[in-house]
Amino acid sequence: MSKIDENEIRRRLEELSQIQPTHEATERAINRARLGFTWGTVTRSYKIKSPIIKFAAAAALLICAGYIIGRVSSAQPVDIEQLRAEIETSLRSSLTASCEQIKDELHQQVQRDLTEFSAQTLAASTTVTDQRLMELIRLIDAARMQDYLRVAAAIEKIEIDKTKLGNGLQALATRTNELLRTEQN
Amino acid sequence: MENRQEKLFELLDKSGASLYALLTKLTLREDVAEELMQELFIKLSNHKELRKIGNWNAYAHRVAINLAFDWRRKQKRICLSLNNVPEIASNEKSPLSNLINSEESQEMLDAIRQLNKAPRQAIVMRYIQQQPYEDIAEQMNKTTHQVRALCHKAINRLRDLLGSGRKEIQNV
């Protein structure tokens, strides 16, 4: 077995002995060690010895674990912002898609309504015009009838006056004749 | 409890920097050393028989060495590509020499990891921490002769380990 030189070993050991950590690292390590064993002492001083307390602590931990598992496995609370964003996106896309269709339907509906309204208006105006015309006709007929009655009364009066005139002329003629006879006599 | 915490704070203030430096040398990673430093003090604070420890500083260094080599053992199976070879902490040489030194250092530390506990501690304390034999002997509850013998055996074992690794590379 080939052996390494003893001086070589001493040299390497010498090199190892020259290694020194930095001052900052040393300070950090000392502080950490101080904190570590202080905390270890504190935790040990509060070490639970009673089995009942241990059992109670274990039960409490079990309940806590169950609660946490339940919370984790249950349905997650609704993210309002995310839900709102999703609804907005869905609505926007659906509205954009059906906007033209809604416009067409609305236009057709307005057209139908206007047509129906105009037809109804026309029908109503025709009826009123007819009624007015009938009334006018009735009024004209009534006026003409009244004129006829007046003309008939005038003609009857003229006939009566004509008869009276004839009778007067006849009586005059008679008297005239009598008068003439008398004179002749 | 208060006494334990006070002692740990005292240890951290007194030996925190040297413990962190040791961990950095053994892991070659500042971030890992930071992790292990925290782990070390948590271990110390949780130690049940802390009263039995005579020399806190030596005990903390022994635990730090064990933690660092445990980490190295766990990292053994991870193959490092040239892109993710970590740079040696605070080394101001060129990137190429960093890489070469890093590979050499990794090889050396892996070899040290394979040593038994006592020689491993001795070699780390003597050559990496550069402590005198007397201090090491006091910390390990051994005589200086025993420590010297441990270090000598450890160097020989390292020569074997590193030599066999080199031979494998040559055969490949």
How are the secondary structure elements laid out?
The complex is a heterodimer of chains A (185) and B (172).
Chain A: H1 6-18, H2 23-45, H3 51-73, H4 80-184
Chain B: H1 2-27, H2 30-46, H3 56-75, H4 95-113, H5 117-128, H6 133-140, H7 144-171
Helix pairs in contact in B: 1-2, 1-3, 2-3, 4-7, 5-7, 6-7
How many strands, which pairing sense, and closed or not: the largest β-sheet of chain A? none
Helix % of chain A is over 70%
Termini gap of chain A? 221 Å
SSE ordering of chain B: HHHHHHH
The CATH superfamily of the domain at 1-85 in chain B is RNA polymerase sigma factor, region 2, helix turn helix motif
Question: In angstroms, what is the radius of gyration of chain B?
Answer: 17 Å
Give the strand content of chain B.
under 5%
Span from first to last CA of chain B?
A: 58 Å
Would you mind describing this structure in some detail?
The complex is a heterodimer of chains A (185) and B (172). Chain A is mainly alpha-helical and 185 residues long. Chain A has a domain of 40 residues. The longest helix of chain A has 105 residues. Helix content of chain A is 89%, strand content 0%. The radius of gyration of chain A is 67 Å and the shape is rod-shaped. Chain A has four helices and no strands. With 172 residues, chain B is mainly alpha-helical. Chain B has a domain of 85 residues: Rna Polymerase Sigma Factor, Chain: A, CATH 1.10.1740.10. Helices cover 76% and strands 0% of the residues of chain B. Chain B has seven helices and no strands. In chain B, helix 1 crosses helix 3 and helix 4 packs across helix 7. Chain B is globular, with a radius of gyration of 17 Å.
